[in-house]
């Protein structure tokens, strides 16, 4: 009964967005020692950009949620970032799996240093699924902004190509892991990283595509 109620809450949240009501999104707080709170200006800036340019109606107040909380099911989109270790408890793993399989979406952005840890934790959530690279013809790269070459490169880390990995439930992308890209840094206030406006704009536009995909699928 509890699980059904949580799924119902998530479905209602998505429907309210589609009907034109303001929608909440959240930042995931996790254990393990990694800085889950990195990039404090990124999500507010992304929401402001989307509301102004992509006709979304997202609440500019960003909430924080933990992986084991029932509140997780109130958010169609949850963002996660950081540089270090991530550790999900068995209860968090189960709750995240239920959340993602019942309509939720998790975007994990490697802020440089999270890769080895998050791959381990994703495997706990989806032991029978592997992260797959998302092809450049996927809808997430097509609207509202076109990225014919896939994920843009925002910050240089190890001189590697940026890659977008995903976990799918049927045809629906439920988990997006952006690697060697650093979208969140590109969403931050201009003076934080002094990125050229063209680079920052690519990051914000790609972020808008992610949110557009979530609320239209």
Low-confidence parts, pLDDT < 50 over ≥5 residues?
14-19
Helical fraction:
25-40%
Structural category = alpha/beta
How is the main sheet built?
Answer: 7 strands, mixed
What overall geometry do the principal axes of the alpha carbons give? Answer: globular
Order of helices and strands: HEHEEHEHEEEHHH
Report strand %.
15-25%
Tell me the distance between the termini. 26 Å
**Number of helical runs?**
7
Please tell me the overall pLDDT: 91
Give me the Rg, rounded: 16 Å
| Biggest sheet strand line-up | 2-1-3-4-7-6-5
Number of strands: 7
Topology readout:
Blueprint: H1 2-18, E1 26-29, H2 42-53, E2 63-66, E3 78-82, H3 90-101, E4 106-110, H4 115-125, E5 132-133, E6 163-169, E7 172-179, H5 183-187, H6 190-193, H7 197-216
Parallel strand pairs: 1-2, 1-3, 3-4, 4-7
Antiparallel strand pairs: 5-6, 6-7
Helix pairs in contact: 2-7
Written overview of the protein:
By secondary structure, the chain is α/β, with parallel strands linked by helices. The protein is 37% helix and 16% strand. It has seven helices and seven strands. Strands 2-1-3-4-7-6-5 form a seven-stranded mixed beta sheet, covered by helices on one side. The relative contact order is 0.17. The model is unreliable at 14-19 (pLDDT under 50).
Descriptive terms for the model:
single chain, about 220 residues, alpha/beta, seven-stranded mixed beta sheet, 7 helices, globular
